[in-house]
Amino acid sequence: MDLHYTAEEEAFREEIRGFLREKLPPDLAAKVRGGKRLTKADHERWHAILSEAGYLAVNWPTAYGGTGWSPVQRHIFDEETAAAGAPAILAFGVNMVAPVLMKFGTQAQKDYYLPRILDGSDWWCQGYSEPGAGSDLAGLKTRAERDGDHYVVNGQKTWTTLGQHANMIFCLVRTDPEAKKQEGISFLLIDMTTPGITVRPIITLDGGREVNEVFFDDVRVPVENLVGEENKGWSCAKYLLTHERTGIAGIGQAKAALQHLKTVAGSQLKDGRPLSEDPTFARRIARVEIDLMALEMTNLRVIAEAQSGGAPGAESSLLKIKGSVLRQEITDLLRRSVGPYALPFLSELMDADTNQAPVGPAEAAPLAAEYFNRRKLSIYGGSNEIQKTIVAKAILGL
Amino acid sequence: MRFTLSQEQAMLRDTVARLVRERFGFEARLKTLESAAGFDRDVWREFAELGLLGAPFGEEVGGFGGGGIELMTVMQELGRGLLLEPYLASVVLAGSLIERLGTPAQRAAYLEPMIAGETLLAFAHGEPDSRYALEQVATRAVATEGGWRLDGRKSVVLCGGDADHLVISARTAGASDEEAGIGLFLLPSDAKGLNLRAYPTIDGLRAAELELDGVIVPAEAVLGAPGETFLAIEATVARGIVALCGEAVGAMETCCDMTLDYLKQRKQFGVAIGSFQVLQHRMVDLRGELEQARSMAILAAGRLEAERDERERAVSAAKNLIGRVGRTIAEESIQLHGGIGMTWEYALPHFAKRLVMIDHLLGDEDHHLERFVTLGRAAAAAPALSAVS
Questions:
Q1: Which CATH number do you get for residue A329?
Q2: What number of C-beta contacts closer than 8 Å exist between A and B?
Q3: How far apart are CA B105 and CA A284, in angstroms?
Q4: Which of B287, B51, B11, B145 is nearest to A388 (CA)?
């Protein structure tokens, strides 16, 4: 056993730090650190910077224009970008539809879509969940019927993250209503500008517009937009779930959030002393920090396993469960750290370009909203209960 | 970064695993723990023959120079079999102090016979009022002609009743809560003025209360520089914590294995109880906790040779987390077993008892959480947390 990074890995870390010092716009980092909402332009700006540096497609092989990085390098990249306050890379194009295209797509699909993901021509969103198909994803009802060279799509998707910015959506649709649940599903790429598509916002409990409903009304999709075989779309969906997910614990983000927590707690007063020196609060922070140390080691163990050729399958479910709960804990402490100043709720203060004066400490403005927003972490991507059921079956054999 | 064992480490693990498989049956353990000896002297001799009693020590004293990872690995395997043998007390704690501070003559007289399996050692440090604080030593050592005179009390000394020699801490100077002024002394267990009351502990081991009433120690039995042994004690306790973390992870593995088997075998309402989702999810939680504990044991073991600040922060973090997880796994595996988990004649509850009691040794979760906070404050100027850097 050796708990140290190699000299090459340390050099890689320095390379990433150098890149961030030089290329991460300070105003963007300030927005991320301050918990401000990011605009479409903010995301696109960072996407373009990463793409130009060749750092966007961290999970892709070099043949497709990816970094070809090892799992350890990806971990270091996550850690450093989060610590520097860089926006998280949106997963839907580069980390979700792209691996499916590489595995199941035709040459023409790969040639067309992959470069457009890299250069930012396409903004992808995900059409999986439906009002009646959440944890029971295979219960989806959105219908695609063949009509000549097209599929005609009717139905509704929901919880579509940042769908309001997207020009493309990858969907699971039902192509054979007679077949058993998982067997009549296909994986379809749909242009969001096609007539018959309506996007409606869902305002979340923190007041944010992050997710949407997407309605399909006789939407005509060319058959060449089918990925893989008709009625075999479930294989694509499952592939994504078992695909390389060593970053799923969100260690880099958790460490950045913990650092922020220490800063905020150090600037608040309790009995005239910094809150971070209050024995009760200090222990709350310490406990989370220790849990995070353990989870980082657990994550590194899974990464090392992946590095030596092992495939993290259900272990990533354990990482997701622990990582989501831990990140929620940190937002809980952040909310507590500002005491009564968690209460004022002025939505404009969460946008960067506002002239409104903050109520109380400026860093307090988004903390309660973020705490409520992060409840999503244990719900999306397969709720923690679904993850536990996966582990019970796949690892424990129950 | 590599989390696999080297060839030598894997051989060491396999050696201990085989010994545990062959010699650590539960029926035998029940008999042994009720016997006068309290542990199996034949097994202890095998430990010696296999070189395990010297494993953590340098080659010059007959060990094979193992570090934290080796220690954790040995203890993990022994923990899987729920050892009764005084490996922590005699080898890891008392042995390490003698290795660290002893003169060549002291090593030859005390450490080598212990490594050979001929004698046992114990480390008498805790006192009735010190709880887990290592610097709190009220036992006094006063210089006399040609040696020292010791007066005071030592509490819950592991293996205290079986040890041939004791390493005893006593204050040569300073107030009773100062790090400076603590000395260490080597004492035969039949020393005049030493009153010793041995007793069993609830997890099946043995300990003793010591009263020192004018015990005279000759100058050649002083271990290390009188008054300057605190750092050695702290570093040795760190080693003990790594050993306990390893043992705990081994015991947790057995608890989880037994509980999972039970969920698959036990039938109620006509089906295996493991088919119930409410129990499946609890079992998954235990597995998640076990992996967290394993990670922390590895982290502490890997930091054992690091600088003091880094080492102590890692061992306190590990002991805190393992204390919490140990309790969870102990309680949950009893609960998931139901009534059978409450019985003396079944193995599982003995593992559960040990897991809970490990939190009472070398500092519990509260002690180490507070310590982690204090150490963190001291290092506040240091860069952001990185478990691995």
A1: 1.20.140.10
A2: 142
A3: 49
A4: B287
Domain boundaries of chain B, sorted by first residue = 7-119, 122-227, 231-378
Residue B344: CB atoms within 10 Å: 7
Burial category of A348 from C-beta neighbours within 10 Å (exposed 0-12, middle 13-18, buried 19 and up):
exposed
Clarify whether residues A226 and A365 are in a common domain. Answer: no
Q: How distant is the Cα of A252 from the closest Cα of chain B, in angstroms?
A: 10
Q: pLDDT for A45-73, tens place per residue? A: 999 999 999 999 999 999 999 999 999 99
Q: Which residue has the tokens 């992808």?
A: A124
User: DSSP alpha helices (H): ranges in B107-167?
Assistant: 112-115
pLDDT value at residue A224: 97
pLDDT in tens, A180-224: 989 999 999 999 999 999 999 999 999 999 999 999 999 999 999
Q: Domain of A199?
A: 124-230
**Least CB–CB distance from A298: residue in B263, B292, B372:** B292
Question: What ipTM describes this predicted complex?
Answer: 0.94
Q: Is residue A101 part of a domain?
A: no
**Within-domain flag for A112:** no
Q: H-helix or E-strand containing B24?
A: none
> Of 2.40.110.10, 1.10.10.60, 3.90.79.10, 1.10.620.20, which CATH number belongs to B122-227?
2.40.110.10
CB contact under 8 A, B385 and A255: yes
Task: Spell out which residues of chain B touch residue A3, defining contact as CB-CB under 8 Å.
Answer: 1, 298-299, 302-303, 388
CB contact under 8 A, A297 and B387: yes
Q: Mark whether A209 and A304 lie in a shared domain.
A: no
A44 and A68 assigned to the same domain:
yes
A183 interfacial to chain B (CB closer than 8 Å): no
The domain that holds A220 is classified in CATH as 2.40.110.10
Q: Is the pTM of this model over 0.90?
A: yes
What class does CATH assign to B231-378? Answer: mainly alpha
Mean pLDDT score, A263-278: 96
List the catalytic residues of A.
244
- Count of CA atoms in the C-beta half-sphere (13 A) of A276: 18
Assess if CATH 1.20.1260.10 describes domain B7-119. no
